[in-house]
Amino acid sequence: MLAIIRCRILSSSLLSKNVKIKIYRNIILPVGLYGCATWSLSLREELRLREFEKRVLRRVFGPKRDEVTGEWRKLHNEEVNVLYSPKILRVIKSRSMRWAGHVARMGERRVQGFGGETWGRERPLERPRLRWDDNITMDLQEVGCGAMDWIELAQDRDRWRALVGTVMNLWFA
Questions:
Q1: pLDDT tens-digit profile of 94-107?
Q2: Are the C-beta atoms of 97 and 139 separated by less than 8 Å?
């Protein structure tokens, strides 16, 4: 993904900022987030994704001239957020929620091992890594549906779609 940041198209003065944002939304994000519906993100990985998005957006919007000193400087995080609201984590979480609905409606027979069962070995004694369904449960807790069984909730498509829309519209700071 670092090669994308160094791309000269995003820092070109020949393209407008609107075109650069469209390039980011329609080319860079889909390539970078390919298969993100099945990712199990840790907080460190979420932080790195946010940093990546900020870096790309700083490249798109370019430096800003300081009004007091007259020198050029990089945009601060607040300035980048005003110009373009970060969406990378919202996209990842909504895609994983949408995929979770599909998986939950597949049935037990087709999806063996879903729900974190392991084959032939136990999870280690130290702090275990988060599983994919653990992330889904945490996302539902952020929305306020943490007490419900999400596999049963996903059986109702209309209700699940509304929930995915709620997750997409949340602000993940």
A1: 899 899 888 888 87
A2: yes
Residue-range domain boundaries for the chain: 2-86
Q: CA 76 → CA 30, 54, 56, 69, 87, distances in Å?
A: 26, 10, 13, 16, 17
Q: Which tokens in the block code for residue 25?
A: 């939304």
Look up residue 110 and give its two tokens: 């087709």
Q: How far apart are CA 95 and CA 75, in angstroms?
A: 30
Interatomic CA distance for residues 1 and 83, integer angstroms: 22
CA-wise closest residue to 11 among 56, 60, 46: 60
Asked if 119 contacts 127 with a C-beta cutoff of 8 angstroms, the reply is no
Mind listing the pLDDT tens digit for each residue in 1-27?
545 555 678 888 888 989 999 998 898
Task: Name the residue among 144, 150, 146 with its Cα closest to residue 105.
Answer: 150
Q: Which residues neighbour 94 within 8 Å (Cβ) at sequence distance 6 or greater?
A: 164, 165, 167, 168
Torsion of CA 147, 45, 92, 17, to 10 degrees: 140
> Considering just the CA atoms, what is the radius of gyration of the chain in Å?
20
